[in-house]
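Task: fold both queries, return tokens.
Query 1:
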Amino acid sequence: MIDPYAPAPPGSPPSWGGPGGSRTGASARLPVRPATGRFLVLAGVFVCAACGLVYELELVALASYLIGDSVTQASVVLSVMVFAMGIGSLAAKRLRRFAAAGFGAVEAVLALVGGLSAMVLYAVFAWTGGWGGPWAFAPHVLLVAFSLTIGALIGAEVPLLMELIQRVRRQDAGGAVADLFAADYVGALVGGLAFPFVLLPFLGQLTGALVTGTVNALVGTALVLGLFRRDMTGRARWLLLTANAVVLSLLATATVLADDFERAARHAVYGQDVRVAVRTGAQEVVLTGDTDGRPLDLFLDGRLRLSADDGRRHHEALVRPAMSGPHARVLILGGGDGLAAREVLRHPDVRRVDVVEPDPGLVRLARHDPGLSALNERAYADPRLHVVASDAFRELRSTPTATYDVVVSDLPDPGFTAGTKLYSLEFYGLLRRVLAPGGRLAVHAGPMSARPRTFWTVDATLRAAGLRTVAYRVAAREEALAPGPHRTAAGHPRAARDRGYLLAARTPPGLRLDPAAPRPRTLTSGSLLRDARAAFRTRLTGLPPSTLVHPRY
């Protein structure tokens, strides 16, 4: 049996690969001792693995933000990447003869594709995401394409690195695999922790991906040209050096232009009147309008959360029916914009209002921004209002029994995966516990006509938690909107979409308005009863409740 790593007989020529310039079946001619060379290869594996996982997490995060439904996007990205890694590993078998040059080329392409992936995906979403027809799926197609490409390149690293580490110092296959995978997995751990705790909060998604690509290119180039340059022809070295110089120049240019690009893309998404755009640490908050007669709009992570044209109708419908009865102590879940608090505080006999909002940045904006604070009528200046910056689930678990007369759930629609636990049987069980005898719970359950199954699943979940419910709906007026995530590309009026609500209590709640409170501007008792009858006609029965371990939304 021929030992491919045995020294060649005296006088025989070295076994070189083809034009790629790497030798096959021979030890590398290293500029350092084998032990040092092996350490440097494993260090390169560590850094490249960290970069690879950052690319994966960046695609998942950006896709969840732009497209929505984080579980689906994470499943698509990770499953496609793992599949592509297998394809890349098989394809890289043909490059083992040119392991050094092949690894350098793979890292250069991976750095370019991974580093620019966030910027390209955001650009496609910003300039085509609001279009109809085939363009509507452009972000989805691009997400799969990036996942396939990055996964194939990451998979190609493993056989090439295995070849290189064996050329540094031959060892049994099991030991080589153990060393390689140990460095790879530890690097993945560091990359996985660096993304949410360092890159995302300090650099953001675009610059974070570009910096990761730069590190990836530098380390790949340094490893190949510094350690294995003698195993490559002069032409291969110059080609690799030129390619990496081009990649680093492109990444550097994109990094310098990232802020200007983000502003241009943001204007393409939200229109030209973006007034405030901040990342609070929990989410991206964008305020548009409130100038030149344009009504104020509030976007959270790219989704329209509040429009001044329709905000009063929504919050009066959500809050006012729940306030018909004892309401000295009120809990608002979410509602960091202050509009639900505005409606609660209109009742002079309210003694205390607790707002549980996990994003203190949104609360600061609602407190100090002139447009938003005027819209909520400076609710945060009222001494009866107290803000708790906490997760609603965690806060309710530590809240004493029968604490509140009214609970208002002003949370994002249940159709978004990140919030499904706040529409679960377990969550409503906690809410039932903190309600005082005779207390009432108001829940915004999303659009009834567009997603009737989701709405009535919320109803079934409340009933499974031991609460009686009454459903009602309020039709939203048509709004002429500029291009954006929920707007037409040409700025045509968006079709009216109703909002569905559920009023819940231990006993059947009456749907009426408090006669002692100031009169609402958009609601009457008669309109509420008509809205309840309209909602009843859409009722879906026999739906199972949603739980933490089996979400139904």
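Query 1 returned. Query 2:
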Amino acid sequence: MPHLRQTKNSYQMIVNGKPFMMLAGELHNSSLSSAAYMSTVWPTMKHMNINTLLGSVTWEMIEPVEGQFDFSELDKVILGAREHGLHLVLLWFGSFKNALSTYAPAWVKRDVNRFPRVHVLDDDRKLKTIELVSPFNSRAWEADARAFGTLMKHLKQFDGEHSTVLMVQVENETGLLGDSRDRSRAADVAFNAPVPSDLLAHLKSQERLHPMFEKRWPRFQATKAENTSWEAVFGKGVAAEEMFMADAFARYVGHVAAAGRKAYNIPMYANVWLNFDDPSVLDLEGIPLGEGTPTVAGGGAKAGVYPSGGPVPHALDIWNYHAVDDTKLNFIAPDLYLHDYDWVCKQYTYRNNPLFIPEQKADAFGVRRTWLAYGTYGCMGCSPFGIDTVELDPTELAFWRRSNGLLHCMRREILTVQADRPEDMFGFFFDELKDGKPPGQWRKTFGDMEVIVDRSFVFGRPGPGYGIVIHQGEGKFLLIGSGFQTTFRSTKPESTFTGILSSEEKMVDEDGKLTTLRTMNGDETRSGAFFMMPTEEPDYGGFPIRVTIPARTYIAEVTAYSLEENAEHY
């Protein structure tokens, strides 16, 4: 069965006994409901060098009548993926999808006696009912868990010998919109009770909690045992109400996940609609900003604007306690659209949490950032959303194919380093250069050699780029990518010179074996000053001599060296 294997500081997806790099894309919400529709999608995905598709399976579709299940369309879809050599990650839209219950069956929606709704305060401070099943109700999660467990049992029977389905997402962007907490009678009773003693004891037993938790509650460990109401522990108002909802939703999702894992033990995760405390963590480059745009585009700065109770960074410790263990979820995954990519990766590799990005921007802006995720953070996969309706011009399509194709052909090398020596690799990207903004630079030191990554030199306008650098020992580095150049600097105090000793453009076969295509020197290394990883069409800017050689394979091996001289050498 597909499973996660622990690495030096994270986990990798194992498929048929081997590490697997997911080059993924997420479909629109209704796409996987139709095998006929998907028959038009599979070839396009293969052409884009995608090997894994994320798509939803909805509760209302598989159990339209309580106790009567229909998996016929899902089976056809799985057979279609299998026929085209593609894998699937299924998204369980059960009780919760984007902080609503719109994908629950009609028999759940109509029966408010068995499945009570969440009540919130509207703008006039009046209670109103919303399309969201209350998490303060065991009958709701029991029904959801039965359906999810039945789905997973069927998957094991239908696909267990094939591993077409690699992983399952449990619910989708769970939480509450429109208010910071459920204000139904059952929720009021729970909110007025003490913080559950098991949760409080767990949090207080931890030597360190998530940095965003500690930033909000720096004196949490000093909480007095005799006063443990939600507001006494977390503060009055929204802060306490959000943590209260996180406790409820995490318990609910944990129950559902446990039923699925018991039936078929393949990896499972929950995704999160991100928030922001500080607008500086947003990356809104190129986004037209009108009034309120940063709040909406970035997820929201207040619980209720973003889903209150979801597994945002400052609530991760509560979610990890209730929903993440060997019998429930394997990890929490961020949907990453307009946040700073590096910042989010750091938040969700907390305590070696496996990194998987189930939703992100489906454009060159997003694709370039996947190189940072794979190279620096050991990401298992990155998945642009709406992949089946992305309309790319020929240049963009070629870029996407090249990026995925390059990751695919170098997957064995990258996965090996991810697992055994992640400190020897880092990823990076460069966006389109904007007038008046600095060009940017990435640096990392390996032993006594610092690697400095800049945009690739051109006589014309510098362009975007992406890549991974892997340290192979003894000054040797593997360079993968396009549109950048590397300079090397010895960190030895006695060093008087650092240069490039040798450099070769490499090609790779299907077994991952590298061989030399061209030996590069002289002009291509600016006489040993730096090594360029150019694009297919470098911008000569009208310069009459074609000095920069266009890239062929986007793979190179460079050996840097330094000299340590003393007085007798002069």
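Both queries returned. Flag for query 2: The chain has a mean pLDDT of 93.
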